[in-house]
Amino acid sequence: MTKLVEWLGASGLFVGVWAYLFISTPVSHSTDFARHFVLFLPFYVLLAFAVISVSIIAWRVYTFNDCEEAAKELKQEIEDAKADLRKKGFKIE
């Protein structure tokens, strides 16, 4: 099962449950808090998703590893390529 199908299935399930709660909650038998909570539940879920996503991205950027050996190797390969091009007659700045 692909991630798209998983997300669409979970989203459809959430929308179905939310619609059922919104439609089946009579205005006369519920408190204003419960009615507003059900009404704004999609926004709360979207806000929680955004906060969690930004937190995960920030943590992964904060803990990103530097690869000193790879940087040195890349610089050496660049210098080798420049030397090879100079030997073949190219002018490099």
TrEMBL record:
Keywords: Coiled coil, Endoplasmic reticulum, Membrane, Transmembrane, Transmembrane helix. Residues 64-91 form a coiled coil. One of its GO terms (cellular component) is dolichol-phosphate-mannose synthase complex. InterPro entries: DPM3. The keyword Membrane applies. It is a multi-pass membrane protein. Pathway: Protein modification; protein glycosylation. It is found in: Endoplasmic reticulum membrane. Pfam families: DPM3. One of its GO terms (biological process) is GPI anchor biosynthetic process. Stabilizer subunit of the dolichol-phosphate mannose (DPM) synthase complex; tethers catalytic subunit to the ER. Component of the dolichol-phosphate mannose (DPM) synthase complex. Belongs to the DPM3 family. This is Dolichol-phosphate mannosyltransferase subunit 3. It comes from Daphnia sinensis.
